[in-house]
Amino acid sequence: MSKSLAIYPGTFDPITYGHLDILKRAASIFDEVIIAVAYNMRKGPLFTVEERLEMIERCIEEAGLKNVKAEAFNSLLIEYAKSKGAKVIIRGLRAVSDFEYEFQMALMNRKLYPEIETFFMMPSEQYTYVSSRIVKEIASYGGNVRCLVPPFIADRLYAKLLKKEQ
Q: Model confidence at 42, in pLDDT bands (50, 70, 90)?
């Protein structure tokens, strides 16, 4: 029997407890999970891809997720998934508002690569309102984000925002 490989793509700028909740649960379902960090310069990320990978790798290590690895990709997601031999893409749904966009993407991905399945996962209730965008906004006003991201990420976020202001 072949091993199940899932790709969990995103910008992860920065990775939040909501992302980690989905990642941990996906790691318990699939034999291997690749958390695929998109360059996605359209979103104007605060952290570089290298910084995001470094933070994610530390989270993976601290969580003891032996079957998870982090990689960057700068291509069409479906091409990346094909190159890895993945048959599953994991997507998080926080609210009904996420569904329409994610549904369209899942259908387009299936059109481009019929062998792929999209696996929608909802974060635990305490993380349904958490997004990287909201975390950055709260931090930019000096708000406490330590309950939304791991403490070392909060420290890096505050330092990055302080440096950006100077």
A: confident
Q: Which residues contact 92 (CB under 8 A, 6 or more apart)?
A: 10, 18, 19, 22, 98, 120, 121, 122, 123
The predicted pLDDT at position 163 comes to 77
- Closest to 55 measured CA to CA, from 85, 98, 12, 26: 12
CATH number at residue 90: 3.40.50.620
Mean pLDDT over residues 66-83, rounded? 96
Half-sphere exposure of 100 (CA within 13 A, CB side): 2
Tally of domains in the chain: 1
Contacts of 161 (CB under 8 A, 6+ apart): 46, 136, 139, 140
**Which structural domain range is residue 74 located in?**
5-124
Residue 32 host element (H or E)? strand 32-38
Active-site residues, by number, are: 19, 43, 94, 132
